[in-house]
Design goal:
The structure is a homodimer. Chain A is of the alpha+beta class. The first copy, chain A, has a single domain (3-75), classed as Winged helix-like DNA-binding domain superfamily/Winged helix DNA-binding domain (Arc Repressor Mutant, subunit A), CATH 1.10.10. Chain A is built from 5 helices and 3 strands; from the N terminus they run ααβααββα. The first copy, chain A, has a 3-stranded antiparallel β-sheet. In chain A, strand 2 and strand 3 (63-68) form a beta hairpin. Chain A binds a DNA duplex through helix 3 and helix 4.
DNA sequence: TTACTTATTAGCCATTTAGCTATATAATGA
DNA sequence: TCATTATATAGCTAAATGGCTAATAAGTAA
């Protein structure tokens, strides 16, 4: 599993962005509106998520629309379950 | 969900320690033997895991035995599934 | 072209992180 | 008590992180 996904998911702001994008695609501005951070700060979080391939972006006029890459998220969850789920030594 | 668990799990060395402890309790030295890092480095990783309550330690003579706190690990996985699992907007 | 809007990139700073070596602590046994 | 073993803590450094403001880019429309 790609280390960058773990790093991306280890920040509370980025996890909240992921949760927002679960509702559906959103522009960078719509995402930023949910936080008190400065807008460039959110932009950088989006870049981190993009490098982890957890989100994809697409320009639409002056807007940039972000959407969740559900595949990566689900692969990450599957990896976690495989490595850390179940299998208690005294199960 | 406690932020410290995410931070603890975001490091590859610590995840490997967790995987080792899934096999059963181990002393700090046994754990350190699985890595090329210096012993104090592993000791510090164990402290991070301890503060996240992912492991517990118990002195046994000169040894200190670490064991997994499976409850926390499973609660973390459950939280992840609840927040990020399923629920694709186009499912 | 100019002005406006949306968003990113650049550059800075403070804090955290992860590694190391050296030192300290705790338990045991001679 | 002294030595040995197992482990943690202290103190340092380099790199990464996350925040900010200021500047830049990209698109639209007058």
């Amino acid at each position: 599993m790609n280390e960058s996904v773990f790093k991306a998911m280890s920040d509370a702001t980025r996890r909240k962005i992921i949760e927002l994008l679960k509702e559906g695609p959103k522009t960078a501005g719509e995402i930023a509106d949910h936080f008190t951070h400065a807008q460039p700060t959110i932009s950088r979080h989006l870049t981190v998520l993009k490098h982890a391939n957890l989100v994809v972006d697409q320009r639409e006029g002056t807007f940039i629309i972000y959407r969740l890459n559900t595949t990566i998220l689900q692969e990450w969850l599957a990896w976690l379950l495989e490595h850390f789920g179940g299998g208690d030594s005294d199960e």
